[in-house]
Amino acid sequence: MPSNKSVSDAPITQFVNCRILKDHKLQWEDLWVREGKILNPEKLFFDEEGFADHKVDCEDKIIAPGFIDVQINGGYGIDFSQASSDIRGGVALVAKKILEHGVTSFCPTLVTSPSDIYHKFLIVSVLQKVVLLDLLAPVMLLCFSPQVIPELRVQDGGPEGAGVLGIHLEGPFISEEKRGAHPPKFLRTFKAGGLADLMEIYGHLDNVAMVTLAPELANSAAAIHELSGRGIAVSLGHSMADLSQAEEAVQHGAKFITHLFNAMLPFHHRDPGIVGLLTSDRVPPGRTVYYGMIADGIHTHPAALRIAHRAHPAGLVLVTDAVMAMGLPPGRHTLGQQQIDIQGLHAYLTGTTTLSGSIATMDMCVRHFREASGCTVEAALEAASLHPAQMLGISHRKGTLEYGTDADFVVLDDTLTVRETYIAGQKVWRK
Amino acid sequence: MKLIILDDYEQVSEWTAKYIRNRIKKFNPGPDRFFTLGLPTGSTPLGCYKKLIEYHKKGEISFQYVKTFNMDEYVGLPRDHPESYHSFMWNNFFKHIDIRAENAHILDGNASSLEKECQDFEAKIKAAGGIELFVGGIGPDGHIAFNEPGSSLVSRTRVKTLAMDTILANARFFDGDLSKVPTMALTVGVGTVMDAREVMILITGSHKAFALYKALEEGVNHMWTVSAFQQHPQAVFVCDEDATQELRVKTVKYFKGIMDVHNKMVCTVSISLYFFY
């Protein structure tokens, strides 16, 4: 029997009887995967005279790119910002659980924290850089300070959990008036705004994917410029900025808005504020401003969701902004210093009607967004996959089912319920 | 020749697909005995391909032991260009069936030596034992494959410069921009198709009516290259009502009158009821 051996020995899997999200449409096409990447079957046929080794019958389901959550503070009782003794274990637990929600990549988010927390989480071992071997790091650990390890780092997903794209640092360079639940004593301003300020607070930026800041803070331009230059996505949020301050920030490189509407000035018809970026005519040509929306039906009124979506559909990015109560069963829970009551999609501080954060999962957000906005299935799926990938500048390998991209995808039924999750072509979860 | 006259394009597609299906089944191909099939591209055979895919998905036909030889391909167009005939065959046929790539032969319009490519193609046909059934369409100028008016009726696979008529007809696939349409193509010759043991030509639409008239009711003429098949021992022309508009009433009545016999060739029964006349 002739074989597929001309380019690679690796087995080829063909997913059949499915509708895949391709070119912004759901199409009845097969999905081909080899070595963790989406394969071009026409090239395989004509160039390699190859064929599939295994066929998987998807029974008419939908295949969409894996969801990407760029703002998630924790879940299942884990709070990423808390200085626990097992940070990596906490991230790993959440990473594993969110596979059930169709999330294949995420940005663990740290809220405003004291400087030593940042230094602990973000510092990269000098030894790692020199030695370049993970195997020796534990040995070095025995001889050197336990703080000299990368606690939260970029890593590929797999059966153990969703991939970490990098950390989202939400703060501390944010507005005091719009701090929301962030602790006021750890807020910071820029001295000169450049690298020195960032390094003093954060320590290292190697595994950072995004930074949320308030652009009206003096000297923010230099920081935005510095971060953007390093490929870190700068997001505007927890801010009192008016539209022109926001536009200036975009011109310096900012490209995202953290949870639109929340923790910013409300839209006003004579001063649209940050919300006005959605229809700004001062965005540099060829660039898109993306914006995060918490589509749990609670943190954003469906009408507001619709206004934003209709004004700028291409920029909408679904985020969960999930807190540690996400994933826990209904009832009372003690989380850190707080008591929380979970009822449905609401998480209240016990005895109050104060929301303590969102607990909707990403797949719930996709379904709610679709229902509330009346958008197409394709638009809802892209808001959770393509758009966050585009925002982070990684759409050449994530967030799509284009040939050559990472084979991270979800199998959904027509109600957009996640049935199976795949990372690098491997099934990592099924219902 | 047999002239099969059906009501419309859908019926033509279905009849042709059933005929091909039955032909392959009667031949009973196996690992040592491939059924060799010549195939066209274009809008005319699309419906037939869809039907064949349907029959394949129902389990009525397998292409595992079928070797295909396409008629033509543009010169200089990248193989993965959406308008290349490789792309056409992949998207409209190959990707939906169980054919192996090594059994699907299409001329390579980007070969370093076009002449050698053409000669190799003829050699591959010969090595496969010749073509059992060559399916083709007809151009409004009566051409078969890219054998434009004036092509030798005994021609073999070669490079042809396309006629202006053909370039204009193809412009719709290249955003209406004439400068983007390829001007040359590799094509099987009239002689190559004549060598097949059976030839089946599909003609649908009133814009093909005059060419059909010239091909059937006038003489064998190199200006209407399809007319060459008047001299083929097993030729089947399948057309719809619209394409008969330039034929004599007498011709149409005669062939319509024997449709009962023709239809026996496409029914889903055992081989023993297969009639020739």
From TrEMBL, chain A:
Keywords: Carbohydrate metabolism, Hydrolase, Metal-binding. It comes from the Eukaryota. InterPro entries: Amidohydro-rel, GlcNAc_6-P_deAcase, Metal-dep_hydrolase_composite, Metal_Hydrolase. The keyword Hydrolase applies. Binds 1 divalent metal cation per subunit. Gene3D superfamilies: Metal-dependent hydrolases, Urease, subunit C, domain 1. Substrate binds at A181, N262, A263, R270, H299, L355, S356, G357. Its EC number is 3.5.1.25. One of its GO terms (biological process) is N-acetylneuraminate catabolic process. It catalyses: N-acetyl-D-glucosamine 6-phosphate + H2O = D-glucosamine 6-phosphate + acetate. Belongs to the metallo-dependent hydrolases superfamily. NagA family. PANTHER family: N-ACETYLGLUCOSAMINE-6-PHOSPHATE DEACETYLASE (PTHR11113). This is N-acetylglucosamine-6-phosphate deacetylase.
Automatic annotation (TrEMBL), chain B:
HAMAP family: GlcN6P_deamin. Its EC number is 3.5.99.6. SUPFAM superfamilies: NagB/RpiA/CoA transferase-like (SSF100950). GO terms for molecular function: glucosamine-6-phosphate deaminase activity; identical protein binding. One of its GO terms (cellular component) is cytoplasm. Keywords: Carbohydrate metabolism, Cytoplasm, Hydrolase, Phosphoprotein. It is found in: Cytoplasm. Homohexamer. PROSITE patterns: GLC_GALNAC_ISOMERASE (PS01161). Belongs to the glucosamine/galactosamine-6-phosphate isomerase family. Residues 9-231 form the Glucosamine/galactosamine-6-phosphate isomerase domain. Pfam families: Glucosamine_iso. This is Glucosamine-6-phosphate isomerase. Catalyzes the reversible conversion of alpha-D-glucosamine 6-phosphate (GlcN-6P) into beta-D-fructose 6-phosphate (Fru-6P) and ammonium ion, a regulatory reaction step in de novo uridine diphosphate-N-acetyl-alpha-D-glucosamine (UDP-GlcNAc) biosynthesis via hexosamine pathway. Deamination is coupled to aldo-keto isomerization mediating the metabolic flux from UDP-GlcNAc toward Fru-6P. At high ammonium level can drive amination and isomerization of Fru-6P toward hexosamines and UDP-GlcNAc synthesis. It comes from the Eukaryota.
